[in-house]
């Protein structure tokens, strides 16, 4: 009787020990995974998400790595990252310098997404914000040197909206004009055609994920001229008359 | 007869041809390779019957299928899902409620061929014992991966999941994923017999949960004819599931959620003890 109880107690102890071992092991793996998953959220700047992708931190919770967007892409732009690849394992991305997005008007990749990681309801490819083109190196961009390369401007699907050429005086020659390629974030979809076709060995214009490419003004800032435009007129009744303060007698 | 029961292999060779004795094994390989072939037809031959992979797919442009476990992780990560993935997961759950939860593991999952290969080689080489984690480990891991998904706001297990990595690798380019597959093979071969599928894989654990209520089951209705040759125990990837049905006095149906419906026991039993039936079939034949 006593021995039976002992045995069952020993068995129970063994069972509990194994259970605790399993639980601790699983918790350890889970913690490691959680930390890794958090870190893996940092996408390298060369890897861009397909059009309509949720912001990166939400995207990694929504994308099931099925590759239906990759299959829907007619230009083999999109790839699924393999283990050790540019993006977190199994997630879709493209590299603008290799194969840019051809901006299909019907956005078939986003339509194919079963989970909403890509927004099916994206009204037009022009609304996509895969990234933002940035002249990352003015020192090597040919247009900045006063040459008329203009290639990024010419290939831009949203020419004169997403990239414009802004004339500026050429100080070096004193009598020519620089045509500065200038990107406008309200129209740039981040398709990457400019980066793909930059004639330099290393592109001077690169499409960066929005987080890397954009600054953000403080939420409490009010730009006077914008507020004036919104209100349809000056917000104060008349220009302020400030008192003249000068030393006496002047 | 008593001498014969000691050397099961001899009896087996006397019973039917090689194909007849491996009917279910061959059917299972055909199913695994067939599923893989359907997926591969697209990228290799341009015949797009199925697009996507085992995480989520679209068949003939109409039938969405989504792995319920990856969907659970996505929910845990805080993503409220769009329609097709939910519908796809519902279809998958309904299907496996019919044919047996872990039927996924033995009839669909490509990793099964790897681990079956490891188990076979282990038997051939006579590699002894080894250590296995607790049977409960996979459920804890299932919970831990969901917690990690919740904590990180990202689908956690998919970063390292050998199953989806293997399948995706075959379809979309393998990268370093073959190292992970090799790792699973070596783990089963050298460290832990039947360790990966039976003790670790949380994908299988998720399908086990479906298997708790699934309809199609293996049963031992002719258990009276069992002569204790032990063949079924030798081939079964989840040995513990057989005993209650074969040696118990209750239902002859193997109701354990971890039975993968691989039907290898039906194949190897020379006394024809086992057969497929539904979970409520308590009949015994003599």
SSE topology sketch:
The complex is a heterodimer of chains A (250) and B (286).
Chain A (H helix, E strand, L loop, with lengths): L1 H38 L16 H7 L5 H5 L6 E2 L11 E2 L14 H5 L19 E4 L15 H5 L7 E8 L5 E8 L9 H5 L7 E4 L1 H4 L10 H8 L19
Antiparallel strand pairs in A: 1-2, 3-6, 4-5
Chain B lengths: L1 H5 L1 H7 L3 H4 L1 H23 L4 E4 L2 E4 L3 E4 L1 H9 L6 H17 L3 H6 L2 H15 L11 H16 L9 H11 L4 H15 L3 H6 L1 H10 L4 E4 L11 H5 L6 H6 L16 H5 L6 E4 L8
Antiparallel strand pairs in B: 1-2, 2-3, 4-5
Describe this structure in words.
The complex is a heterodimer of chains A (250) and B (286). Chain A is α+β, with helices and mostly antiparallel strands. Helices cover 31% and strands 11% of the residues of chain A. Chain A is built from eight helices and six strands; from the N terminus they run αααββαβαββαβαα. A two-stranded antiparallel ribbon of chain A has the order 1-2. The radius of gyration of chain A is 28 Å and the shape is extended. The mean pLDDT of chain A is 88. By secondary structure, chain B is mainly alpha-helical. Chain B has a domain of 184 residues. In chain B, the strands form two sheets. Chain B has a three-stranded antiparallel beta sheet. A two-stranded antiparallel sheet of chain B has the order 4-5. At the A-B interface, α1, α2, α3 and β1 of A face β1, β2, α5, α6 and α9 of B.
List keywords for this structure.
heterodimer, A: 250 residues, alpha+beta, two-stranded antiparallel ribbon, 8 helices, 6 strands, extended, B: 286 residues, mainly alpha, 3-stranded antiparallel sheet, two-stranded antiparallel sheet, 16 helices, 56% helix, 7% strand, globular
């Amino acid at each position: 009787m006593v021995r039976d109880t002992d045995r069952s107690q020993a068995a129970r102890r063994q069972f509990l020990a194994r259970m605790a071992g399993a639980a601790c092991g699983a918790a350890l793996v889970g913690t490691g995974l959680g930390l890794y998953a958090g870190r893996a959220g940092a996408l390298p700047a060369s890897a861009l998400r397909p059009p309509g992708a949720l912001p990166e931190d939400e995207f990694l919770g929504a994308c099931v790595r099925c590759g239906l967007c990759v299959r829907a892409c007619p230009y083999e732009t999109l790839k699924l990252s393999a283990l050790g690849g540019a993006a977190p394992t199994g997630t879709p991305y493209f590299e603008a310098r290799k194969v840019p997005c051809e901006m299909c008007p019907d956005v078939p990749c986003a339509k194919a997404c079963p989970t909403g990681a890509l927004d099916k309801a994206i009204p037009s490819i022009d609304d996509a914000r895969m990234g933002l083109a940035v002249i990352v190196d003015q020192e090597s961009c040919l247009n900045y040197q006063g040459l008329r390369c203009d290639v990024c401007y010419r290939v831009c699907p949203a020419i004169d909206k997403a990239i414009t050429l802004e004339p500026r005086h050429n100080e070096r020659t004193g009598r020519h004009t620089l045509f500065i390629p200038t990107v406008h974030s309200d129209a740039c979809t981040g398709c990457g055609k400019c980066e793909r076709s930059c004639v330099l060995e290393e592109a001077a214009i690169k499409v960066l994920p929005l987080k890397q490419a954009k600054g953000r003004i403080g939420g409490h800032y009010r730009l006077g001229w914008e507020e004036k435009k919104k209100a349809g007129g000056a917000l104060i009744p008349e220009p302020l008359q400030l008192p003249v303060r000068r030393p006496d007698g002047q | 007869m008593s001498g014969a029961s000691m050397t099961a292999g001899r009896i087996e060779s006397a019973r039917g041809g090689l194909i007849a004795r491996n009917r279910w094994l061959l059917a299972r390989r055909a199913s695994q390779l067939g599923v893989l072939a359907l997926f591969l037809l697209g990228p290799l031959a341009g015949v797009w019957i199925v697009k996507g992979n085992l995480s989520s797919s679209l068949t003939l442009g109409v039938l969405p299928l989504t792995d319920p476990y990856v969907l659970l992780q996505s929910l845990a990560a805080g993503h409220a899902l769009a329609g097709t993935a939910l519908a796809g997961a519902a279809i998958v759950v309904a299907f496996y409620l019919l044919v047996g939860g872990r039927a996924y593991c033995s009839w669909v999952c490509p990793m099964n061929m790897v681990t079956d290969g490891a188990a076979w080689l282990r038997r051939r080489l006579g590699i002894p014992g080894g250590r296995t984690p607790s049977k409960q480990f996979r459920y804890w891991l299932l919970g831990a991966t969901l917690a990690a998904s919740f904590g990180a706001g990202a689908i956690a297990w998919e970063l390292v999941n050998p199953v989806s990595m293997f399948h995706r690798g075959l379809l979309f380019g393998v990268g370093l994923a073959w190292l992970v597959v090799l790792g699973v093979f070596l783990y089963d071969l050298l460290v832990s017999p039947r360790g990966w599928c039976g003790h670790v894989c949380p994908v299988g654990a998720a399908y086990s949960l479906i298997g708790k209520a699934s309809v199609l089951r293996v049963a031992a209705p002719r258990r009276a004819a069992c002569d204790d040759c032990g063949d079924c125990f030798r081939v079964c990837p989840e040995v513990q599931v057989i005993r209650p049905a074969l040696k118990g006095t209750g239902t002859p149906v193997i109701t354990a959620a971890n039975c993968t419906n691989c039907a290898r026991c039906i194949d190897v039993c020379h006394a024809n003890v086992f057969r497929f039936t539904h979970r409520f079939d308590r009949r015994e034949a003599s």
